[in-house]
Amino acid sequence: MSLNLEEKKAVVAEVIAQLASAQTIVVAEYRGMEVKDMTKLRAKAREAGVFLRVLKNTLVRRAVAETPFAGLSDHLVGPLAYGISSDPVAAAKVLHEFAKGNEKFVIKAGAMANFVMSSKDVANLATMPSRDELLSRLMGTMQAPIATFVRTLNEVPTKFVRGLAAVRDQKQAA
Question: In a 10 Å sphere around its CB, with 0-12 CB exposed, 13-18 middle and 19+ buried, how is residue 51 labelled?
Answer without folding.
Answer: buried
